[in-house]
Write a structure and sequence with these properties.
Elements (H helix, E strand, L loop, with lengths): L51 H16 L3 H14 L2 H13 L3 H13 L3 H13 L3 H13 L3 H13 L3 H13 L5 H10 L3 H14 L7 E2 L3 E2 L13 H15 L3 H13 L3 H13 L3 H13 L3 H13 L3 H13 L3 H13 L4 H12 L3 H13 L3 H13 L3 H13 L3 H13 L3 H13 L3 H14 L2 H13 L3 H13 L6 E2 L2 E2 L6 H11 L3 H14 L2 H13 L3 H13 L3 H13 L3 H14 L2 H14 L2 H19 L1
Helix pairs in contact: 1-2, 2-3, 2-4, 3-4, 4-5, 5-6, 6-7, 6-8, 7-8, 8-9, 9-10, 10-11, 11-12, 12-13, 13-14, 14-15, 15-16, 16-17, 16-18, 17-18, 18-19, 19-20, 20-21, 21-22, 22-23, 23-24, 24-25, 25-26, 26-27, 27-28, 28-29, 29-30, 30-31, 31-32, 32-33, 32-34, 33-34
């Protein structure tokens, strides 16, 4: 039973009464459990370092010495034959050496009997060797007891082995303690790792990696998980993560494919993509599908989608659902919907719930709403929070607000920021402002830009300007043009006022509020564009002012059209100004209508002037309506004269 990843085939030479000489066969750092194929054992004996002829000569020398009664030669010859798989030849020599008191021979006789299936007899010889001080035998005996469920005895013998510096004993003890969630496990795992144990180095790295700070799991469009590790790490490579990286590197250098995978993930997160790719490639070639998938993402990000698809295909064929999803997304982008659907189904069959979610997205894009709902439900019932959110949106679009609400709630409680924001919209639509604000605040706390904007607006209504400013800054920093504009207005209201005029107001230097106005304006916010134009006009930069007014006017801003008309009229282009005032007046701008009335009155087109004056009276505001009424009456008198 493979519970720890190391083998009880433990070779050793030497006598009971003293440590062995130069022919002691050491336990390999990379071993195996009996019956589980793994890399060959390594040792310090000549049979590991010399060629075939030298091995044969050494074996002959040991055989002659053994026949002459040399006990140590019997033990060494038995170990050599045991390594070669000649159990019959080895047994006689090992038994003879054991009878003569050789500790290592007793240990290796236990190994031989264990390989033949006589576990209890093997344990007896291991006990004799362990009592005599054999760390290898103590390790083997501890493994024997653990396999039989006797953990106290297993711990006793494994601790004996570990405390003598036996690397496999340290690892086996660490594994036993880790199984019991004993804090001392890390100490022994570290001891084994420091002595070169590959699996111990990997497992120690995993402990340290999990201890490091990290963010949420990244994702991609269509529910494809982006990264190979357990989630995004936060901060620089220091503390537990830095130490984890060192142990990953040590294990990966020894051929541990999962260590290479996680090392690649750390390097990728840090932006060292070239080295990350090398470790992903190493791991992928060793058969790790997650590394092949991650390598595919690196290649895709570099623009090499063809080779990315090759590695995704390799990973998907080995059962990696994330790679199957990536292939599905790739084919969906190409419009190959049938192939995409096949890979999404393969992902789902591999146990990746994203497959069902992606099938829902695919069906929704094709207008197959019933099928989309079916797949969303399947993913949502499996705990996919974004599928629950998508299902709720689908139900809401179909008019089933009652059915949508619990799915929004389920998704939001599971951590979906979009679902929390959508719940806010749902409650706001019902007039439940307090409930809406609660969900907006939750989404905003998780970084949702539009939610932060809604919270900022709510705080402004309540008169809490400081809280409003804080949320508006978050939303504006997240790219919301509306938030940038509203933040600018908050800051603008704090500035001391100077006398103003229709084109703008006097300003002496660019302030923070102007910077936010400009940011919003550059994002296409029409009111911000008008305001930036006014500020430019106040500085005397009429070209810049006209540019912003025109941008706003062409986007449908009546204030922008009106102000652009004012600039053009000042420059002597009254006919073009009238065009923009007409656009503004048609959009409901009272001052623009009054300006048109004055233009037509000066031209002598009294009826047209009276018509626009009448329109200005209707549009207002009060001051404009009063002036327009006087003008209308005067024009009427002239027309009737």
């Amino acid at each position: 039973m493979d519970v720890m990843g190391d083998k009880a085939t433990l070779y050793e030479t030497g006598r009971f009464e003293h440590a062995s000489g130069r022919y002691e066969v050491l336990d390999a750092p990379r071993a195996e459990i009996p019956g589980t194929p793994e890399t060959p054992l390594t040792s310090e004996t000549p049979d590991e370092t010399t060629d075939t002829a030298e091995l044969a000569a050494e074996e002959l020398r040991q055989r002659l010495a053994a026949e002459a009664g040399d006990v140590e030669a019997m033990s060494v010859l038995g170990a050599m034959l045991l390594r070669r798989g000649d159990l019959d030849g080895a047994e006689a020599h090992l038994r003879a050496a054991t009878a003569a008191g050789d500790r290592a021979a007793a240990n290796n006789l236990g190994v031989l009997l264990h390989q033949r299936g006589y576990a209890d007899e093997a344990a007896g010889w291991w006990r004799i060797a362990a009592v005599a001080g054999s760390a290898a035998a103590a390790h083997a005996l501890g493994r024997h007891h653990r396999e039989r469920g006797d953990e106290p005895a297993a711990e006793y013998w494994l601790r004996q082995s570990a405390e003598q510096g036996h690397v496999l004993g340290a690892y086996a003890l660490a594994d036993l303690l880790d199984h019991r969630a004993d804090a001392a496990a890390e100490r022994w795992m570290r001891a084994a790792a420091e002595r070169g144990h590959r699996e111990a180095a990997y497992r120690l790295a995993r402990v340290l990696d999990r201890r490091a700070p990290r963010g949420g799991e990244t994702g991609g469009a269509g529910g494809v998980r982006r990264r190979a590790g357990d989630g995004e790490r936060g901060g620089a490579a220091d503390g537990p993560l830095a130490e984890a990286e060192q142990w990953y590197r040590q294990a990966a250098a020894r051929g541990h494919r999962r260590a290479a995978l996680h090392l690649g993930a750390i390097l990728e997160k840090r932006g060292e993509l070239k080295e990350a790719g090398r470790w992903y490639l190493t791991s992928a070639k060793d058969g790790e599908p997650r590394a092949a998938c991650a390598l595919g993402f690196l290649l895709r990000d570099a623009g090499d989608t063809e080779n990315a698809a090759v590695w995704w295909l390799r990973a998907a064929q080995e059962g990696d659902g994330n790679a199957a999803n990536a292939l599905g997304a790739l084919h969906a982008e190409r419009g190959e919907t049938q192939t995409a659907e096949r890979w999404y189904r393969a992902a789902m069959d591999a146990g990746d719930v994203n497959g069902a979610y992606n099938l829902g997205l695919l069906c929704a894009e094709q207008g197959r709403t019933p099928q989309a709902e079916q797949w969303y439900r399947r993913a949502a019932y499996a705990g996919h929070r974004e599928a629950a959110n998508a299902l709720a949106i689908l139900l809401l679009q179909g008019g089933d607000a009652t059915g949508a609400e619990p799915w929004f709630s389920k998704a939001a409680e599971a951590g979906s920021v979009d679902a929390a924001f959508n719940l806010g919209i749902l409650y706001a639509g019902r007039g439940a402002e307090r409930d809406a604000l609660r969900w907006y605040e939750r989404a905003a706390a998780a970084g949702h830009t539009e939610a932060a904007l809604q919270v900022g607006i709510a705080r402004l209504r309540e008169g809490d300007e400081r809280a409003a400013e804080r949320h508006l800054r978050c939303a504006a920093g997240g790219g919301s043009a509306e938030a940038a504009y509203r933040l600018a207005t908050v800051l603008d209201a704090r500035r001391p006022r100077t006398s103003g005029h229709e084109l703008g107001e006097s300003v002496h230097q660019k302030t923070e509020c102007e910077e936010w106005y400009e940011r919003a304006a550059s994002q296409g916010h029409r009111r911000a564009q008008v305001r930036v134009g006014m500020l430019a006009a106040a500085r005397g930069d009429l070209v810049e002012a006209a540019r912003w007014y025109r941008s706003a006017a062409e986007a449908g801003s009546r204030n922008g059209a009106f102000n652009l008309g004012l600039l053009l009229a000042r420059e002597g282009s009254e006919p073009e100004a009238a065009v923009w005032w007409t656009r503004a007046a048609d959009a409901g701008h009272g001052r623009a209508a009054l300006r048109l009335a004055l233009v037509y009155a000066r031209r002598g087109e009294l009826a047209e002037g009276q018509r626009w004056a009448d329109r200005a009276v209707a549009l207002g505001p009060g001051e404009v309506a009063e002036r327009a009424a006087r003008l209308r009456d005067a024009l009427g008198e002239e027309l009737s004269a």
